[in-house]
Amino acid sequence: MNFNKISFRVRYAETDQMGVVYHGNYAQYLELARVEWLRGFGISYKSMEESGIMLPVVSLSINFKKSAYYDDLITVETRLKKPPLVKIEFDYTIYNEKDEILAEANTVLAFLDKETKRPIKCPDYVLEKIES
């Protein structure tokens, strides 16, 4: 299915005293990758929110394999697991510069109406863009 890659350097503030990336930062890395995945299809998360659609995370799992360290160049590969309905699911693989797998992750997000906070179907314009 559809995938995207984004690379960036680990910042000092994201690490503990041993220079290892704090595990809580991985959720932010996944969010960054997911937003860029959408942007790659011409879909702005900001414009979705402005049009009354929210995408909260309803499930997050991360399996850590190796540590990432300060100043490492890491790459997050984002893959759409299946066509979205009311939920959209992504799989991720995070690599270091040596192409070693640092972590594998999965997130599930739900499409919600911003006013009612009720689940809604994935907007047609999103489906059209990711299926083209």
Structural commentary:
Keywords: Hydrolase. This is Thioesterase family protein. Its EC number is 3.1.2.-. One of its GO terms (molecular function) is hydrolase activity. It contains three helices and seven strands; from the N terminus they run E-H-H-E-E-E-E-E-E-H. It starts with a strand and ends with a helix. The model has no long low-confidence stretch (mean pLDDT 95). The longest helix is centred in the first third of the chain and has 16 residues, at 25-40. Strand 4 and strand 5 form a beta hairpin. By secondary structure, it is α+β, with helices and mostly antiparallel strands.
Number of domains: 1
In whole angstroms, the N-to-C terminal distance is 12 Å
* Tally of DSSP helical segments: 3
Globular, elongated, flat, extended or rod-shaped: what is the shape? elongated
What's the CATH superfamily, by name? Hotdog Thioesterase
DSSP strand tally: 7
- Classify the fold: give the CATH topology: Thiol Ester Dehydrase, Chain A
Rg calc: 16 Å
Pfam families: 4HBT_2
GO molecular function: hydrolase activity
Family: Belongs to the 4-hydroxybenzoyl-CoA thioesterase family.
InterPro entries: 4-hydroxybenzoyl-CoA_TE, HB-CoA_thioesterase_AS, HotDog_dom_sf, YbgC/YbaW
